[in-house]
């Protein structure tokens, strides 16, 4: 019998007076934090939440998110984290599909829960940040006395996050106590030294997302560190907090680092307290990594993972790093590159390669992974589960749907998502290759590349570019720049300047929106 929160309980016993959460000049000790999680667990039990029941957590990065997450687990329930940018229609599917019994929501978001409630099993709504009709205010909801933690099996579900839904209906990902407990204990392995009580973590990654939930919140609290949540991403606020509080660890997504390096005052900030900086969530352009390191003198490491893998599967780390690579598989996780017949693709001698010197179709395949962090499956999706897994070599392999290649030193290089690959005139074009080139242009602040319909070629390449402020460049000059440096069939035949790119809360470009905009024109 186990429970993900038992690991944190040991930390609380060892460091009761240590600050667990620091938010807007208020420090919450591990002892005080733990007491409140027990009070919430007892209140949920009294409200009818039983072991195995789902509870929605519909909050931005606030101390109450952390309390709710661990309170639900202490009650024996499973957390359904929900994006606070979602509206009623979007959360309705998650609540109905998960059969959640209760929801802890920001008071401003309670009306969306109420709007969706009739089609769900939600019986109890708890509001954070104020009173709301149909909800009980958070502090008033807490029980007078905490309850003991309900023990759960390794294979019991601890969290049920949903895929982003950028294509199709979001799927509930079943992450067990074994999945999340293993990942929590090993998230610090990618650093020279694991997290410790002296560490201070920047909490900019949204906690509803697996990256912020596990690698930052869970791992930080497991190791007795202090978590500094930020409810909204703002580059200047984040940079100021790093400097003023002497934060030691930052995990972010590429869009955040791009915002930081493009901030006009970036060079005025002191990041010398940071001992480990990591990028994940999507591929980080090499140019962004290079510029970040030039400005701040701090190495930026890139890693890789998915919601379905809790999330880390690969990482660069001190002493084992190659720019442009997602790194090597972390200890305990197996990975390989396979073709459509699940045969291993040949390795290159050493990457990253000059993609003009290789036939990518000869070396690129799908990244598949196996390990204790791989999900139990998708909730209520037998068809999707059948497609997601392959049994081979005595292991269960998960199909990531990411395309890449590997080298003889076991470094992996992700080229693109399978669904993003552009086939133009019979040639395969990987958008990331074009995007990397665009980021190298001195007048480009942000860029995304998609395939659009073309009568003669089937598809053709289009680039959406955000120019830097005061940039003196035209779309035609961008096209010519690409044509000079890559094969003719790869260069964007259309370039459109835009003010910003549509992104998810975790910084991923929503390329389907760009395609839809194109179709509407």
Automatic annotation (TrEMBL):
Molecular function terms from GO: acid-thiol ligase activity
All copies of domain AMP-binding enzyme C-terminal, residue ranges: 433-508
SUPFAM superfamilies, per database record: Acetyl-CoA synthetase-like (SSF56801)
PANTHER family according to UniProt: LONG-CHAIN-FATTY-ACID--COA LIGASE (PTHR43767), NONRIBOSOMAL PEPTIDE SYNTHASE PES1 (EUROFUNG)-RELATED (PTHR43767:SF1)
InterPro entries hit by this protein: AMP-bd_C, AMP-bd_C_sf, AMP-dep_synth/lig_dom, ANL_N_sf, ATP-dep_AMP-bd_enzyme
Residues passing through the membrane, by range: none
AMP-dependent synthetase/ligase domain location: 9-379
Protein name: Long-chain acyl-CoA synthetase
Entry-linked Gene3D superfamilies: 3.30.300.30, N-terminal domain of ligase-like (3.40.50.12780)
Organism lineage: Archaea, Methanobacteriati, Methanobacteriota, Stenosarchaea group, Halobacteria
Keyword line: Ligase
Record-stated family: Belongs to the ATP-dependent AMP-binding enzyme family.
A Pfam family it matches: AMP-binding_C
């Amino acid at each position: 019998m186990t429970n993900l929160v038992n690991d944190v309980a040991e930390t609380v016993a060892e460091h009761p007076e240590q600050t667990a959460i620091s938010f807007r000049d208020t420090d919450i000790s591990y002892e005080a934090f733990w007491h409140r999680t027990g009070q919430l667990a007892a209140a949920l039990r009294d409200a009818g939440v039983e072991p195995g029941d789902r509870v929605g957590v519909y909050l931005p990065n606030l101390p109450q998110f952390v309390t709710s997450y661990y309170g639900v687990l202490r009650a024996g329930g499973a957390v359904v984290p929900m994006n606070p940018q979602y509206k009623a229609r979007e959360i309705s599917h998650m609540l109905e599909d998960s059969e959640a019994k209760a929801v802890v929501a920001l008071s401003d978001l309670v009306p969306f829960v109420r709007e969706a409630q009739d089609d769900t099993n939600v019986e109890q709504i708890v509001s954070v940040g104020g009173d709301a009709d149909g909800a009980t205010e958070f502090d008033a909801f807490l029980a007078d006395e905490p309850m003991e933690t309900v023990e759960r099996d390794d294979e019991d579900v601890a969290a049920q996050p949903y895929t982003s839904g950028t294509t199709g209906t979001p799927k509930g990902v079943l992450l067990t106590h074994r999945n999340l407990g293993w990942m929590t204990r090993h998230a610090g392995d990618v650093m020279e030294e694991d997290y410790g009580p002296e560490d201070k973590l920047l909490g900019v990654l949204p906690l509803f997302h697996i990256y912020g939930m596990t690698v930052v919140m869970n791992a930080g609290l497991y190791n007795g560190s202090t978590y500094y949540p930020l409810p909204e991403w703002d580059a200047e606020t984040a940079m100021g907090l790093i400097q003023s509080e002497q934060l030691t660890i930052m995990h972010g997504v590429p869009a955040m680092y791009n915002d930081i390096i493009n901030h006009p005052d970036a060079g005025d900030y002191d990041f010398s307290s940071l001992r480990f900086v990591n990028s994940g969530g999507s591929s980080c352009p090499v140019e962004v990594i290079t510029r970040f390191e030039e400005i701040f003198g701090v190495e930026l490491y890139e890693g890789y993972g998915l919601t379905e893998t809790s999330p880390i599967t690969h990482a660069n780390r001190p002493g084992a790093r190659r720019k442009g690579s997602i790194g090597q598989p972390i200890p305990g996780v197996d990975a390989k590159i396979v073709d459509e017949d699940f045969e291993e693709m040949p390795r290159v001698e050493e990457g990253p390669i000059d993609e003009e010197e290789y036939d990518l179709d000869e070396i690129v395949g799908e990244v598949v992974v196996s390990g204790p962090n791989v999900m139990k499956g998708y909730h209520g999706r037998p068809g999707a589960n059948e497609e997601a897994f392959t049994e081979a070599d005595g292991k269960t392999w998960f199909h990531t749907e990411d395309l890449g290649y590997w080298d003889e030193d076991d470094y992996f290089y992700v080229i693109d998502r399978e669904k993003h690959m552009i086939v133009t005139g019979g040639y395969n074009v990987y958008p990331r290759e074009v995007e990397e080139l665009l980021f190298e242009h001195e007048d480009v602040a942000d860029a995304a590349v998609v395939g659009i319909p073309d009568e003669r070629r089937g598809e053709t390449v289009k680039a959406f570019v955000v120019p830097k402020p005061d940039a003196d460049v035209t779309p035609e000059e961008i096209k010519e720049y690409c044509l000079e440096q890559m094969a003719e069939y790869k260069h964007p035949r259309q370039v459109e300047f835009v003010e910003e790119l549509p992104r998810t809360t975790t910084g991923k470009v929503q390329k389907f929106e760009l395609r839809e905009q194109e179709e509407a024109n």
